[in-house]
């Protein structure tokens, strides 16, 4: 009887041991829709931890069709504290996707603007922090 009980407990513990690695999935921070001040551009997405740092993926929507929607990202370097800026644009009505890999950063911020195919010009939202290291 005692041997049967030990076998039963061992069999019950096995699925728990197998399930533990599944819980170790990478951390993901989803950020909600951010609109330009005129409401004609918006972006949303997520930041996930991956092998080399952080990966920002998302969608940029242009609703007006005149001009372009911009998602502008700023990332603060963990090594020297300086900020680097990178932008994505969508000049076609509808949704476009973006993907940016960041390594060794303290925080990442995003802003949504309207502009031309060369640069964001106006109607910019406030900067929103979408990832802070350790936070």
Which features characterize this protein?
globular, about 15% helix, mainly beta, five-stranded antiparallel beta sheet, about 140 residues
Fold topology:
Blueprint: H1 2-19, E1 28-35, E2 41-50, E3 53-62, E4 68-77, E5 83-90, E6 94-102, E7 105-115, E8 120-122, E9 128-132
Antiparallel strand pairs: 1-2, 2-3, 3-6, 4-5, 4-7, 7-8, 7-9
Q: Any overview of this molecule?
A:
The protein has 135 residues and is mostly beta strands. The chain has one helix spanning 2-19; strands spanning 28-35, 41-50, 53-62, 68-77, 83-90, 94-102, 105-115, 120-122, 128-132. The model is unreliable at 1-25 (pLDDT under 50).
Could you give a quick summary of the protein structure above?
The chain is mostly beta strands and 135 residues long. It contains one helix and nine strands; from the N terminus they run αβββββββββ. The strands form two sheets. Strands 4, 5, 7, 8 and 9 form a five-stranded antiparallel β-sheet that branches.
- Range of helix content: 10-25%
Main beta sheet strand tally, sense and closure: 5 strands, antiparallel
Question: Averaged pLDDT, please?
Answer: 83
Give the radius of gyration: 22 Å
Oligomer: single chain
Structure classification: mainly beta
What is the approximate shape? globular
Low-confidence stretches: 1-25
Number of strands: 9
Strand content: over 45%
What is the count of helical runs? 1
The SSE string, one letter per element, is HEEEEEEEEE
N- to C-terminal separation?
51 Å
């Amino acid at each position: 009887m005692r041997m049967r009980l030990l076998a039963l407990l061992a069999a019950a513990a096995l699925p728990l041991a197998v399930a533990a690695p599944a819980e170790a999935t990478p951390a993901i921070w989803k950020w909600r829709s951010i609109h330009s001040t005129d409401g004609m551009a918006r972006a949303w997405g997520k930041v996930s931890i991956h092998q080399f740092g952080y990966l920002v993926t998302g969608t940029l929507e242009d609703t007006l069709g005149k001009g372009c929607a911009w998602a502008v990202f700023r990332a603060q370097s963990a090594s020297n504290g300086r900020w680097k800026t990178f932008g994505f644009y969508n000049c076609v009505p509808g949704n476009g996707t973006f993907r940016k890999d960041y390594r060794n950063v303290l925080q990442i911020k995003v802003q949504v603007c309207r502009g031309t195919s060369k640069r964001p010009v106006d109607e910019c939202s406030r900067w929103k922090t979408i990832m802070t290291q350790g936070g």
